[in-house]
Amino acid sequence: MNRMGAGEWGLLIILSVLWGASFLFMGILVKELPPLTISASRLTIASLLIGILASRRPKNLPWRELLILGVLNNTIPYALILWGQRYVSSSVASIINSTSPFFTSIFAHFLTDDEKINKFSMMGISLGFSGVLAMAWDSAQGSLIGELAIITAVICYSYATVYGRRFYSMGLSPLDIAFGQLSTAAATSIPLAILERPWLAMPSQRAWVSIIGISVFSTALAYLIFFRILERAGATNANLVTLLIPVTATLLCTAFLGERLELRHIVGMCLIMTGLLIMNLRGEL
């Protein structure tokens, strides 16, 4: 199992702020624009930025594999999370999102040779899923549907995290992978967004700022950092960023959106974070 050094932890903290802010941006955008339009805009702008950085690099990329990665890591989960945030708060969405390492550990156990589940992983996974059940307990029907949509999104990109490891054996850099993933995801998202007739809505200035923020910082820059961590520390460690995302997202959404968490959400977050800490300490105990 790969160990996390000071450099990897530093990148992880920066990434948690960037991805935590994405839930704030999405919470603003879902009130003004349809979900597929938001997703397509985010992916298109981010892929253009990454494309500029990658313009002088060789273009002999494995596009079929990158298309699979883009659909699983962006096209499907982005749309599901945005749709789910119509029914649950941004803070709750970020807490559900933090279950990603549990699903990643399960996929990595069966699909890799060096990231096997041990007794500490099992304990952490059990606590994590207990946290999800605590959050879903006594949920209203609409809220439960939103939570299930976000969990489905988490399963998609948890598998994509493990799937993405194969690209390093192909000699691809984090920039290559980010460009291929985001550009294919944008290409598959735009036709779907057209069905929503986005030209009928005129975003406010606040929404435009959120689109730029989520595209430039929470997508383009964030994925460059994420794939660097994945390359250095492995899939399970890379997804430990979700240990920190609920904290940054909750602080931001409380400050700017006035959101409040119910007791069951706080209990669920505590269980999930305890499970993640146990998983992170598995190599030390």
From TrEMBL:
The chain crosses the membrane at residues 9-30, 66-85, 91-111, 120-137, 143-163, 207-226, 238-257, 263-281. It comes from Korarchaeum cryptofilum (strain OPF8). This is Permease of the drug/metabolite transporter (DMT) superfamily. Coiled coil: none annotated. PANTHER family: AMINO-ACID METABOLITE EFFLUX PUMP-RELATED, INNER MEMBRANE TRANSPORTER. It comes from the Archaea. The keyword Transmembrane helix applies. Keywords: Membrane, Transmembrane, Transmembrane helix.
